[in-house]
Amino acid sequence: MSTTTELRARIDEIIKSEPVALFMKGNPEFVMCGNSSRALEALREAGSPVSAVDVLPDPAIRQELSALSGWPTVPQVFVGGELIGGADIVQEMGETGELEEKLAEALGPDYRDCAAERTLTL
Amino acid sequence: MASAAALKVLLEEAFPDAAELGVEDRTGGGDHFQVVLATPRFNGLSRLDQHRLVYDALAEPLRNGAIHELRIRTRGTE
User: Fold this and answer.
1) Quick one: average pLDDT of A96-111?
2) Contact A71/B71, CB-based, under 8 Å?
3) Contacts of A119 (CB under 8 A, 6+ apart)
């Protein structure tokens, strides 16, 4: 495992470079937490691409993520480098249609065309 | 472990002007909670900032692991 500084830099790079980054417990194939599942499902329903990062392998991932984002809980969803929220906010935005608006605004109106899911390792 | 009543006290202290405040123990196990909160302090704030204020009020039980899962629903009063 990398040093704390390297870890933080890698997390920051993922947040800034991935269209939609989902920091979660588990991965999209095997979700380990109800809130992570709700965030993932909201993104799927909106037709969003998802780049998932599992925070469970090392407690330092979660610490560095929260230090960067100022958000204390997991999951965390970033669109175009910006924190949009955890499970509750993303689910609410999905229900009101704001999530699709946000995705179209940040990624372009054709964002559904590249809606692949992938899992990144740190 | 935490109790819904104890969390409610923390939220009442942080949001004495709340128009609606509810804390539910979702599973009865003392670690999965649903918070519903409406207060004029949330007027004009983004959902992110509204949730941040709830997290601030519950910082200690979140930090020490007493809360395993927290669901939050917030709104202003306008």
Assistant:
1) 97
2) no
3) A27, A28, A29, A51, A52, A53, A54
Task: Give the domain extent around B58.
Answer: 4-75
- Does the predicted model carry a pTM greater than 0.95? no
How confident is the model over B34-54, as pLDDT tens digits? 999 999 999 999 999 999 999
* Chain B residues in contact with A85 (beta carbon < 8 A): 47-48, 51
Total domains in chain B come to 1
How far apart, in whole angstroms, are the C-alpha atoms of residue A8 and residue A19?
Answer: 19
Token output for B54: 């709830």
User: With an 8 Å Cβ cutoff, are B48 and A84 in contact?
Assistant: yes
Topology (CATH) of A4-106:
Glutaredoxin (3.40.30)
Give the count of Cβ contacts less than 8 A between chain A and B: 31
Picking from A33, A85, A87, the nearest residue to B48 by CB comes out as A85
